[in-house]
Amino acid sequence: MARHLLFLLFPLLTSAATANQLEGLAGKAKLDAVLAELGKAQAAIQTLTAHFQQTKVSRLFKEPAVARGVFYFRAPEQVRWDYQEPRNMTVLVTSRFMITFRPQERMAEKVELGRSQRKLFSYLSASEPVTNLSRHFAFALRDPGGDADLVLLLQPVTHQLKKRIASVELIIERKSFLPIRVSYTETDGDLTTYQFSQVRINEPVPDGVFTLDLPPGVRVVELKLGSE
Length: 228
Known about the structure:
about 230 residues, outer membrane lipoprotein receptor (LolB), chain A, 4 helices
């Protein structure tokens, strides 16, 4: 399950004037300004569609594992990942469960999420306002200066998050405040990076995108992660 967890905050494109608000700021004042812009933009997002490339580096792989596909989000908590390469796979996430469907294997896993798991998904998806995350993550901002992109680092501070996630890194485009790359490191050392492109915000997304009708003959395995 952990490979699908992702703290994804896609703000709307803003003007260069917004980026200029950072000029003259330093330390906590600059960090607070960046978080404020991310929070305001996130609140404006109703739908989002983007192409993604997922790269996973693991001690279990000789080479990085690369996958590509399309990501869909609709507020407040509907998420779908359609993997297209190297093989088809769909991951549908709601507030109550996650379904992973592998058509070539004719198998689907439906995971019922307990309270703590639902909370974890909300932290690592677009459904939890960034302003709320300060209770669960320590933030740090790295600004290389000039036209270079900003780097926002998140370090979990709660026990539940520490069990799964070691750190999260967002690369934020300086002029737009758009996170163009998101990486997270799991506690076992695995590193997963998502690079997004062709981002479309607040365009209509059909209701059918967030439903998953399994074809006849698919074996469904139901799991429950816990009631906490």
